[in-house]
C-alpha cells in the first residue's frame, strides 16, 4: 500500500519519505483514436501528496536554515569567547540553546503595604527570593527586588516601597518579553486585558 503524504512529517527520517507518482498517458489507437490503455488517473490523493510534499520540503528548508544560523552564531561566539559553545546565544526561533527565557508571572491580588512592602498574589510558583521582577499594568511599570516568598500565604515581599499605585490585576513577571518565532525577534509583552461581552440567554 502506498504511503501518500496527508500532513506534516517529523524531520528525523533517514530515507526519503516522499512516494512519487509515475504518471502515464492514455495509450490510444492512432487510427481509430480508441483508448487502448488508460493512463494514470488524476485523484485528490495524488494532488494532496505533492502539495504536502512541497509543504514539508519547505518546512525542512526552514529547519535547516535555523540550524545553520545556530551553528553560525556558535562559531562566531567561539571566535570571540573561546569555549563558551554558544551559551549566550538564542536565535529566537523557538529552539532554545542552553538558555531559556524565564516567563514566570502572576497577578497582584492586593498590595498589603508595610515596610518592606508585601504583595498578595494569585500564585508564587516559579518565583525565588533574591531575584528581580517587573511589576506593570496598562499605565505604569517598575522593577523591584524580591526578598522573601511565602508560598502558603501567597505573598511576595519586595525590597523597596513601590513608586506607583498598581491596580488589582497588575502583573508581576520575571520577564515582560514576547518572542516572535516567525520574525525571530523580541518585543514588549502586553498587560493582557480582555473585553468581555455579556449575552442574555432566553
Give a brief description.
Helix content is 18%, strand content 24%. It is of the alpha+beta class and 202 residues long. 10% of the residues are buried.
- Uncertain residue ranges: none
Spell out the helices and strands N to C.
EEHEEEEEEEE
Helical content class: 10-25%
End-to-end CA span: 54 Å
Q: Whole-number radius of gyration?
A: 29 Å
Overall body shape: elongated
User: What structural class should be given to the helix and strand makeup?
Assistant: alpha+beta
How many helical elements? 1
How is the biggest beta sheet arranged?
6 strands, antiparallel, barrel
In spatial order, strands of the major sheet run 3-4-7-6-5-8
Task: Report the sheet-strand fraction.
Answer: 15-25%
Mean pLDDT: 82
How many domains would you count in the coordinates?
2
Keywords:
202 residues; alpha+beta; Elongation Factor Tu (Ef-tu), domain 3; six-stranded antiparallel β-barrel; two-stranded antiparallel sheet; 1 helix; 10 strands; 18% helix; elongated
Amino acid at each position: 500500500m502506498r504511503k501518500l503524504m496527508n500532513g506534516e512529517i517529523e524531520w528525523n527520517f533517514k530515507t526519503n519519505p516522499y512516494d512519487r507518482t509515475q504518471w502515464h498517458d492514455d495509450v490510444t489507437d492512432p487510427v481509430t483514436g480508441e483508448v487502448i490503455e488508460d493512463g494514470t488517473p488524476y485523484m485528490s490523493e495524488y494532488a494532496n501528496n505533492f502539495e504536502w510534499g512541497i509543504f514539508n520540503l519547505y518546512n525542512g528548508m526552514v529547519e535547516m536554515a535555523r540550524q545553520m544560523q545556530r551553528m553560525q552564531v556558535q562559531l562566531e561566539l567561539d571566535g570571540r569567547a573561546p569555549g563558551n559553545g554558544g551559551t549566550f546565544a538564542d536565535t529566537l526561533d523557538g529552539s532554545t540553546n542552553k538558555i531559556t527565557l524565564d516567563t514566570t508571572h502572576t497577578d497582584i491580588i492586593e498590595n498589603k503595604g508595610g515596610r518592606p512592602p508585601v504583595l498578595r498574589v494569585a500564585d508564587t510558583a516559579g518565583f525565588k527570593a533574591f531575584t528581580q521582577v517587573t511589576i506593570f499594568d496598562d499605565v505604569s511599570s517598575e522593577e523591584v527586588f524580591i526578598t522573601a516568598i511565602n508560598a502558603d500565604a501567597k505573598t511576595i515581599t519586595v525590597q523597596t516601597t513601590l513608586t506607583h499605585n498598581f491596580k488589582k490585576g497588575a502583573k508581576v513577571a520575571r520577564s515582560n518579553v514576547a518572542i516572535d518565532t516567525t520574525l525571530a525577534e523580541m518585543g514588549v509583552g502586553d498587560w493582557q486585558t480582555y473585553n468581555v461581552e455579556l449575552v442574555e440567554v432566553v
